[in-house]
Write a structure and sequence with these properties.
3-stranded antiparallel β-sheet; 8-stranded antiparallel β-sheet; 25% helix; globular; alpha+beta
Length: 216
């Protein structure tokens, strides 16, 4: 007869195996820990000598133009022209650069932080898997309800957030969507509320991705 502790252990192991089987491409390290580390390293580069507290009530923020267009890894996405994405995976020690199958990009300025991740996934995978992944449980809090928006051909999951990652950028938002055989997730930290959703819509209005058959 199997003892009760042994039966419980077997049940836990079975749950872990089922969970891993349903998840997207596994990684040798905790993906959320890698994302949190990348965010911390990027935000550490922000100047903090003269932080400007956000006044209340909030003044009208200066509109951010997404005239830039990043095109690599068989997709394109809009971004502010004065900010450049860099490959977080390549910048981290002992990490391979991003590929078509999975990757992580970041961009930042005094007024904005952007993070984009992606990975291949089985057909009909739920994009919310990556939405949960890109949010850092230690510093990010959902500040509103999950919304599903149709942006061009994309069904996009979006949620507004607040964050303690940096006092300069206490607000933001996160979104996730599927395109072809990949899931994507996007997160931004902003100085003002409601900026993130407009940035997300502008960025994804210009989003395209190539089908696997067209990738060299």
């Amino acid at each position: 007869m199997t003892s009760r502790p042994t039966a419980i252990l077997l049940s836990v192991l079975a749950f872990i195996l089922v969970t891993n089987a349903c998840a997207p491409k596994p990684s040798q390290v905790d993906p959320q820990a890698a994302i949190a580390s990348a965010v911390s390293a990027t935000l550490a580069a922000l100047p903090t000598s003269t932080p400007q507290p956000v006044p209340t009530p909030y003044p009208s923020p200066t509109p951010i133009s997404l005239r830039g267009l990043f095109c690599e890894y068989a997709f394109c996405i809009g971004h502010p022209a004065e900010m450049a994405f860099y490959d977080v995976r390549a910048a981290q020690d002992q990490k391979a650069p991003s590929t078509y199958e999975e990757g992580m990009l970041a961009a930042y300025s005094q007024n904005l932080f952007l993070l984009l991740i992606w990975q291949t996934a089985p057909p009909e995978s739920d994009p919310q898997i990556l939405l949960d992944l890109i949010l850092d449980d230690d510093v990010d809090d959902r500040s509103g309800n999950l919304d599903v928006r149709l942006i061009g051909p994309l069904n996009v999951f979006y949620v507004p957030i607040t964050t303690s990652a940096t006092p300069l950028l206490p607000h933001g938002g996160a979104s996730a969507w599927a395109c072809g055989d990949r899931l994507f997730a996007w997160k931004t930290y902003t100085p003002f509320p409601d900026q993130a959703v407009h940035l997300m819509e502008d960025a994804l209005t210009r989003f395209t991705c190539a089908p696997p058959s067209q990738v060299p």
